[in-house]
Design goal:
alpha/beta; Rossmann fold; Helicase, Ruva Protein, domain 3; five-stranded parallel sheet; binds adenosine-5'-triphosphate; binds magnesium ion
Amino acid sequence: MGKKSERILVIDDEPGMCRLLETILGEAGYQVVSFSNPIQALKAIERDSYNLVITDIRMPKVNGMDLLKAVKTSSPKTPVVLITAHGTVESAVHAMKLGARDYVAKPFQNDEIRMVVEDVLEKQRLIEENRRLKTELASRYQFGQIVGKSPKMQQIFQLISQLAQSDATILIQGESGTGKELVSRAIHFNSSRNAQPFMAIHCGALPETLLESELFGHIKGAFTDALKDRKGLLESAEGGTIFLDEVGDMSPPLQVKFLRFLQDHEVRRVGSTESRKVDVRVIAATNKNLKREVEQEKFREDLYYRLAVVPLHLPPLMERKEDIPLLVEHFLDKASKKSGKADLNLEPKTLQTLLDHNWPGNIRELENAIEHAVALSTDSHLTSEHFPPSLFEGSSYPDPSSLEKLAYREAKQKVQESFEKTYLTKLLNRAKGNITHAAQMADMDRKNLQELLKKNNLNITE
Ligand SMILES: Nc1ncnc2c1ncn2[C@@H]1O[C@H](COP(=O)(O)OP(=O)(O)OP(=O)(O)O)[C@@H](O)[C@H]1O
Ligand SMILES: [Mg+2]
């Protein structure tokens, strides 16, 4: 923002001082509005917006402090500079504590006031720029409910907005918990179909015949339980999107029927000879490697290519660990809203543990871990002990290359310590926390085991 457009409000009960400031600052290129009546000034502050307010401290009726408070309430981001008479520097210091940005003592040199104003406005520009960047970053790293700053996720954000503009059939592949359903919803809700239904169906959850009638519908009498005509999900999703989850689990006969649907977009209800056209966009997902299923002849090649018009691969969390801090923040925010616990924060050491974990369950596992921790926390500070112990398994063996640099005794002790901790944690998990059981499994004396647990800070309440 250029100087010329910056507006300054001046308040001083002496009209002469108002004129003087108008002249000095006007010559410096600012737009200056002045009031010798503070009540009128207050109204102006509420009505218009200013880049800076300059006010005298000592005035009858409404003084500079009152004005400062009023500005802080009605326009908290607007900086305030105070003008103090000789000998009232103390109140100026007090005012700084209340949020004034700076002060100038009377009598002042023209240059002096110009410099203070220039300084304050320069700093204000920086603050605003920072704020703008921050919100921009927040929106750049988030696509609806999907969070990610890694290049891989940034690419996916872009792909989602492109795919939302088209009707192409999409195959989303990725391990369990990588966000396949979330992404498919984002595509639908950013598309022109968003006012029409999004229907999801899990292809592995139903027996073949049920899945068929679920998808295509049936007519009365088509099978024993078909008491009346019923339309399937494809028809119900008319104009919208159907999400075929775990498409790899579709039986071969149904694969043929679905392929036919993708070719002509016609639905024939089970038992019927009539077909009807439906306009539905198809998004399919699987956590299997569908190409390999094709090679192993478990999935039809022609259907694979029809589905994978646009293939979209969601990388495992392991491959985008730089997203973890942002995801943690996102889930903490979500959990704090749900639980009513405010300002949840994570010990840096614990965040490191989360970064070190290899997340076989991907983002779902991370989300659950955070929910677990929030549920167990007693205040807003989360530490390792609040997280599921499984997160700490296996990752605690020291790195061999770091050991070589240590003295033999030290290295040996380190390995022993980490061995004990890992072994005992796994043992306790297997024994579901039951010490007697654990002692039996480890072929150890119960008392010795208890002592070892204590030494490793693995106290459990029995
Ligand atoms: N990038 C992300 N940002 C925020 N939340 C995410 C992200 N990815 C996944 N999630 C959340 O993680 C959970 C799992 O995601 P989703 O159900 O989409 O995974 P999925 O790939 O369909 O898993 P599955 O194969 O097990 O069905 C959901 O609660 C989802 O909201
Ligand atoms: Mg899913």
